[in-house]
Structure formats: structure tokens, C-alpha cells
Amino acid sequence: DAKTTQPTSMDCAEGRAANLPCNHSTISGNEYVYWYRQIHSQGPQYIIHGLKNNETNEMASLIITEDRKSSTLILPHATLRDTAVYYCIVTQTSGSRLTFGEGTQLTVNP
Amino acid sequence: GAVVSQHPSWVICKSGTSVKIECRSLDFQATTMFWYRQFPKQSLMLMATSNEGSKATYEQGVEKDKFLINHASLTLSTLTVTSAHPEDSSFYICSARSGSTGELFFGEGSRLTVL
What we know:
Helix content of chain B: under 10%
Strand order of the largest sheet of chain A: 1-9-8-3-4
Number of helices of chain A: 0
Number of helices of chain B: 0
Order of helices and strands of chain B: EEEEEEEEEEE
Distance between the termini of chain B: 37 Å
Radius of gyration of chain B: 13 Å
Shape of chain B: globular
Oligomer: heterodimer
Low-confidence stretches of chain A: none
Largest interface: A-B, 20 and 24 residues
Radius of gyration of chain A: 13 Å
């Protein structure tokens, strides 16, 4: 699986959009970009995934660059409950073993 | 949505004892389950992959005789930490892959503290 690079930490004001970047410059054509988050002392929670096109669901939007070498997870209106570690993972299939990097600690401030 | 349940959610044991952690898929059949370990302020580290009815595949550096994994049914996998020591204290998380949809779901984790 391709390696990903994420900032160690980010801060965001409550109610504002949180934009979390991820670099995956070695991604191959059949690899998906997945985003999970982990709230303290809980199991990871699936957020969204995509291959080439931008994706949106009730939780977030995923913007993938045209060359697919980077992506951005957007939480449109961050709340205090969105404080968590966000993991960007690149993998070939939806049910594959997932290799977690260090992720980004997002702190949403009141 | 699909649910993966782990039990116990937390356990405290004495050094030298063995501890079993269960991972159940509640509303789907899981052909494959994954076990992760997470130390404080660190990321999840994959320990092993288990397929129903066959032996688990362990990641490099994970002792298979120390961490016994059994996946005897399509809804249950167990991780047994044998002769636990304080350095085995960690957060253990399982994930299960649906055999029908291929989706992956995570449990809530089990926190093991070895005294």
C-alpha cells in the first residue's frame, strides 16, 4: 500500500470548516483513498473513501487532486465532537488490511 | 450499520495470567478479521489477520505463541494473550470484513492492563 503523509496536528474553530490534507504521491491506479477517525479510547470510525472523483456524504467531503497524489478531507462545520485523530489510508480494496500512519490530531476549539 | 462488538471492553489481570478478548460481528458474516494493538499516543499496529477456519497470519515481530488467535466461526474471532506481562498492556482493536459486501468494520476496542 502507498505511504501517506499528514500533518501531526491541526486546530479548528467550532462551526468553521476543517480541511485536513494528505499526501500520497506514490499511489497507484487501483488504490483508493480512505479516511477514518479515532476518538480517544474508541475504535476507528469510517468517514469516507474515493478513487478518482470527489466524494461527499453526511459526514464529510473528500477532494482528490487530478493527479491523485494528494487529497483533502473537509468537515464543513466542525463541532467539538469532531476532535479526534484522523487517518488517511491508501489501499487497494475496501476490505483489505489497513495500515495506519500517525494521522492528524484535529482539535476543535470552542 | 454493521456492528462489531468486542468483549471485554476493559480488563485488568495479574502478570502471568492469560486473557481472552472476543470480537463478534453482530449482523454479518466476517470471512476475515484483523487484530490491532495500540499503545498510548501511538497509531494502530496490525498484529495479525485471521480467516475463518484457517490459521492466522501474523505480522513480523508478533509472537504467534504469545498472541493466540482463533477464528472458528464466521461471527467470532478471539485473541488470547498468554502469560501476560505489563508490557502487554495496550488497547486491542479488531476489525471484521463482511463476506458479502467486502466492507470493513471496527470494534470499540479492549483495554488490557497487566499488573
